Amino acid sequence: MTAVSKRMSELGTENAFVVLNEVKRLQAQGHEILNFCIGQPDFCTPAHICESAKAAIDSCKHGYTPSNGIPALRTAAARMFSDTRHIDIAPDDVVIGCGGKPFIWYSIFALTDPNQGDEVIYPNPGFPIYQSMIRGLGAVPVPIYLRESNHLNFSIDDLTAAITPKTKLLILNSPHNPTGSVMSRKAMEAVAEVCIDHDIWVLADEVYSRIVFDAPFCSIASVPGMMERTIMLDCASKTYSMTGWRIGYAANRLLAPFFTRLITNSDSCAPIVSQEAVVTAITSDQKTSDEMVAIFKRRRDLFMEGFRSIPGLTCHSPGGAIYVWPNVTEACRITGCNDSDEFRKRLLMESGVACLADIHFGPRVPGEGQHLRFSCASSSMEIGRGLEKIDAFVRKHM
Fold first, then answer.
1. Domains of the chain
2. The pTM is what?
3. What average pLDDT score do residues 110-125 get?
4. Cα 359 from Cα 353, distance rounded (Å)
């Protein structure tokens, strides 16, 4: 039998799910595990959104929709993009897809040609699917390092150095997974100037746009001259605790018809019941979403307070998203761990605390030490117990 294609064999994965399977195996064996691996809100989808979905089912909304999404949702998403990014987005600029991930694929597919050396710059550490999709589609992944000395953002000098005549696309993720860093308006303006000068597209992955703690959200699309070259990507998953409903939305006037064609060739359309539910999510009172954000902020603060008392841990306070990214370089030394992944594995097996290591988000940044990622999608009680276990794990080796 013929082997699978080279690009299929090289396609990466999302290691959070690999670790999650390990956690579930241990739990099935009777071990108590405090799980801080997955970036999935631990709240139920708000009741009024669920009721909207039930109403859609009862009214026989069971069929195909236009490939770019139902008009009501494209209108609602366009208004949301316009209001939150302070720009003018029309419904025809918006395409609805089966979550946010497909639009990463569509953007790379639409803007690069396979095996021609076309380059895509992406953040490292970063969402692992960026590198996987870039390579899988035959483009060249070019990492740009996020550094603690720059509040876990990249520098303009590093961006400029990464650009070549083959650069087609820059992926920005703010608020950022896995570090929780948030780019300022000033930083966005500096990046925009470089992208305009070099005629580079930007994929603005903004799925955590509503989850910010210390400053207002800013999109690079709002910088003059950037809206036409920016693909804005957002989704219902994090904002409304709707990960399994699989609805995302992207906006760019030029690329919207091409994204629609890609959906016609792949998914046909996003599920109509989920689309109807997200119309309600976006257009109704945002109180429940705001309450979730307030809880995430309290959990962030709990992590930060706990890390300050654990020997060998330091952590930049994340400005958004649902993650914390502590530096465990000294904790590795104290516990005799060679690196963060050994620390993670021992923390899981010896203390029953599950998290992810920096290597799950790309190669370690040179000179930046060792890091872990903890998700804030667990209760305050679980976070408190987890911090106690981490503290005890480190102290028993002192």
1. 6-44+288-395 (3.90.1150.10), 49-283 (3.40.640.10)
2. 0.96
3. 97
4. 18
